[in-house]
Amino acid sequence: MSFLIPLPVVLALLGAGVCLAVGHNARAQRVISFVVLTAIVGIAATLLWAADRDGPQVVYVGGWPARMGIVLVADRLSALLLLVSAIVTLSVLVYSVGQGIIEFGRDTPLSVFYPTYLVLVAGVSNAFLSGDLFNLYVGFEVLLAASYVLITLGGTGPRVRAGTTYVVVSVLSSMVFLIAIAGVYAATGTVNMADLAVKLQEVPEGVRVVLQLMLLTAFSIKAAVFPLSAWLPDSYPTAPAPVTAVFAGLLTKVGVYAIMRVQTLLFPDSPLSDLLLWAALLTMLIGILGAIAQSDIKRMLSFTLVSHIGYMVFGVAIASDLGLAGAIFYIVHHITIQTTLFLVTGLIEIRGGSTSLEHLGGLAKAAPVLALMFFLPAMNLSGIPPFSGFLGKVALVQAGVDRAGWLAYLVVAASIVTSLLTLYAVAKTWNRAFWRPRTEEPDEVGEWVPSTGTKSGEPWGDTVTVTSVRSLPRAMVAPTLTLVALGTALTLVAGPLFGITERAAAELRDRTPYIETVLEDGSMPGDSAAGEVSP
């Protein structure tokens, strides 16, 4: 099945090009985007099946040996995350169509949305499938370039300010990553991760620790790990609901994936595991304390996003089979649930006219389906049994207890406190937005202006003319309900899913299948067949 590996990247880029060519035809752009993302879902599912059955799938781009050219690898971890990301991006695409995201204004250049969205998908797919550090950097840059466009679409003041912060932070992290790659290449003569897994062991320990710190710093900025997370709550809430949802669900997880891949493959038995435990603890607590202080749903969810990144870093830091399996399971859970909650928030904004808790109320009676769509993923995020959030947290807590040591126990305690505070934050939101009576009613007919506040007529501003603020577009409700059902169904398939994550964790810890599969083209370390002198 290795011939399928490049297709998620290639199809997304080809689809983006075709969408640009038919930019005058919104219907054609929607159809092309839908077909491409549906195909990627099917390809990702096939790759996961093949990787779980036969081990890592590898393709050598251009036929070059692994140590000389680009390698794309689909193992259990990358194929699983590719499948989840494809399902989520497809759902968000349908949601964005329902919102009428490209019909805002006759002269607004929103024909760029669909091609930019597909470029983002290509970047995410390339990052998950990359088998060398420099191609991973390229994947990050492709998805970041697309995200710069998406986060500032419309050119409104809040979006430009948020986009400026986002661009500056992203460029800084990319510079650190690029410098780290240069250091790795200078020390080892390669950027292929399978080759690095062997050659980095020959590098002096001090140099290895410095390289590891640089890579972790770059990825921690992208993943919003404390104290490198201050940029996120001010950047994501200003974007349109579909953009915010896909950013919150996916982009930070690509950073977490990079941390997991580098830590397990390049730096096993790392001396920096305690540092990662401290980062996990502080990310959980600082993030959730920020969440409970918010009076806007978008900002509250942005802080919970930061907080729950700490759970994933916790599993990576533990680095046991159970810890890694729990972290992978929690990534799958969080991608689905966090995306769903931001999509629901977009519906709340339409139905209630705002995402500020000061202006909401009575939604449980006025829109019971919307109330249910918020309640289920919110309880899942909080870790209420028997939802998948609870199951993932139990695995991580058990892994922390198995590790023993006062620091591990401290992080376990912090994870439990964070879960309880998450429940408090979403319960406060539920009480104020859905349960208490509303003090003021929106107009029956007119313009809906979200809490960010923009002027009517701005290019893709937040002003949407609707026939009734009490109605919700079915094309927005359907994909949201689908993701709510999918997030809830994770509990029903938790056994098989956790089985896959356990096998993925064992594969990450073993490293041998990955290394041997990638380097079996004749460029095994110590072999000069690749045209290099063995070190």
Q: What integer is the average pLDDT? A: 83
> What's the total helix number?
20
- Beta percentage is under 5%
Gyration radius (Cα, Å) is 23 Å
Say how many strands there are: 4
Query: How many angstroms separate the termini?
Result: 33 Å
Largest sheet: 2 strands, antiparallel
Structural class assignment: mainly alpha
> How many structural domains in the coordinates?
1
Considering DSSP H and I runs of 4 or more, what fraction of the residues is helical? 55-70%
Protein name: Na+/H+ antiporter subunit D
GO molecular function, one term: NADH dehydrogenase (ubiquinone) activity
Main location: membrane
Domain NADH:quinone oxidoreductase/Mrp antiporter transmembrane: 130-416
Q: Can you tell me about this structure?
A:
Helix content is 69%, strand content 3%. The chain is mostly helical and 535 residues long. It has one domain (2-439, 475-521). The longest helix is centred in the first third of the chain and has 32 residues, at 157-188. It starts with 6 loop residues before the first helix and ends in a 16-residue tail after the last helix. Its main location: membrane. It comes from Mumia zhuanghuii. One of its GO terms (biological process) is ATP synthesis coupled electron transport. Belongs to the CPA3 antiporters (TC 2.A.63) subunit D family.
